[in-house]
Amino acid sequence: MTPDVKHMKWWGWGEEGVFFNYLNKPQFAPFVKKALDIDLRPRKIDTIAFDPDTVPDSTLPDDLAAALVAVTSPDQVSVDPHERVVHGHGSSVTELLHVSRGDYGRLPEVVVYPATDTEVAGVLAAAVEHDAVVVPYGGGTNIARSLQLDPAEKRPIISLDTGLLSGLRELDEDSGLARVGGGMQGPALEEALNDRGWTLGHMPDSFTHSTVGGWAATRSSGMQSDKYGDIAGIVRGMTVVRPAGTVTLRPVPSESTGPSLREMFIGSEGRLGVITELWVQVHRLPAERVVVAYMYPEWKSAVAAIRQIAADEVPTTFVRISDGNETGFSLATQKAATTLKKKLEGKAQAGLWAVMRRRGWNTDQMCISYVCFEGLAADVAARRKAVDAIARRHGALSLGTGPGALYDQKKFDTPYLRDFLLEQDVMGDVSETAAPWSKLNGVHRAVYAAAEKAFAQLGRKGWIMSHLSHSYHAGACLYFTFAFKAGEKPDAEYALVKTAIQQAFVDAGGTLSHHHGVGMEHAPWMEQVVSTEGVALMRSLFDAADPGAHLNPGKVIDAPLTLFDNLE
């Protein structure tokens, strides 16, 4: 019997029975028609039935199977077809495109659920002895193809599921430190901490299904990083099990002990070992939380305002602005008003737009912003007053807390949109970067130009939009979403658009990825962003740490599959 570990549905994002529904959003279909020149159709399916007969039989060698059972138990080792398909891919749009159509690609021969560090060590030892590959698997949410398997790999592949390596194991309230199992998913951790008056505050878009160990392995950042920090700053210590032994890093506030091993493991994507346990910085639950919405007349003034908030060091939990295209998209996803209150709010919004137009605003260019404040009531009021003043100086109107509260409730729903688009034969995906304030607007322009050029090469309409988030003293993250109607060669079409966007990041002075990791998706650009010698140094590290290439090979650098392989 397979352990009771929560997984997403095998063919798409999230839970069965949860979908993006456009039928209760009257402005959405007209918006998509204008943006992509397609007519939406109602959802045809509620689920895709799994047929085990479509899955090739596992070729797990008997001696390796016996070794894995010996270090765990029969219930913790599975060759079940459904289990193998679930663990055979991540959540990149190209992976989901193929899997949802029954094209599974390379699958692991076996899925193993170790429950202790000793069992993890046993699995790794068995893999080395029998020349197998081990791919750590958390929530399966990665979109950079950090979980995709090499179809040319002839050795047995073991998917090591961390789901049993879970739990809030210790809480040091004096230090604000929590010891957590690497396989613990976001909601379970927050619930356990909240019950004791604490929060981690790390909330990426994948929060509802991703794991703490996965966040560390991919160098994740959450939407509340302005206050709580990126995962690299949140993780204070960890345990990493390797074939040769176990690395234990104590949770200390700071240290001078040579090159940082902690930093080395963060972002390593399973190539240096399995992160089984972490010490993370936690915070007392805030007394008050408020999300306020603002509307700016255009992008540059909104960016200038956010830069001023960062420069003035106004404490915020998050600050986000959507550009004109994303603001238009957000407005198009509003549900139809069915209550008197919602109808009155709709009239008030229409009246506000009319006022903006009379002021000379182009409502296609206006940018909505959300700012979250947390803390004691007096502190929240003072910070909100400071941001209100900055927003007004840059031409913004305050929309109050109503839109902000709705955003806060729906912030984890966006990934379901990709599944909906795939069913409509639309390739929709995201790509993010970070750049200094001095280059941010240039990056924004360059990416739009690159995407539009790629759409023109495809000979069809496409859509791109962006928001700014994750502000720092030196700059911020830009998060782009793009979509286009897929043709007969969706892999090649996607590769054309995605490579254009990634190259624009690099050429305009941005980073390759801000928080989605590298995987195989972004590996081809590593030499451009970390230098030839930097890649050589990484290669030396991976080769020395894993000479037999048993640990998730082909990720971060030297990818066996790249977007360029699909270009025509």
TrEMBL record:
Residues holding substrate: R418
Gene3D superfamilies given in the database record: 3.30.300.330, 3.30.465.10, 3.30.70.3450, Uridine Diphospho-n-acetylenolpyruvylglucosamine Reductase, domain 2 (3.30.43.10), Vanillyl-alcohol Oxidase, Chain A, domain 4 (1.10.45.10)
Active site per UniProt: Y479 (proton donor/acceptor)
Site (Important for enzyme activity): residue numbering on this chain: R320
UniProt KW Oxidoreductase keyword: yes
Known cofactor(s): FAD
GO MF term (any one): alkylglycerone-phosphate synthase activity
Presence of the UniProt keyword Transmembrane helix in the record: no
Binding site for FAD: 205-211, 218-221, 269-275
Alphabetical list of Pfam families matching this protein: FAD-oxidase_C, FAD_binding_4
BP GO annotations: lipid biosynthetic process
Positions of the FAD-binding PCMH-type domain: 104-285
Keyword terms: FAD, Flavoprotein, Oxidoreductase
Domain of life assignment: Bacteria
Similarity comment: Belongs to the FAD-binding oxidoreductase/transferase type 4 family.
Annotated protein name in UniProt: FAD-binding oxidoreductase
Source organism: Propioniciclava flava
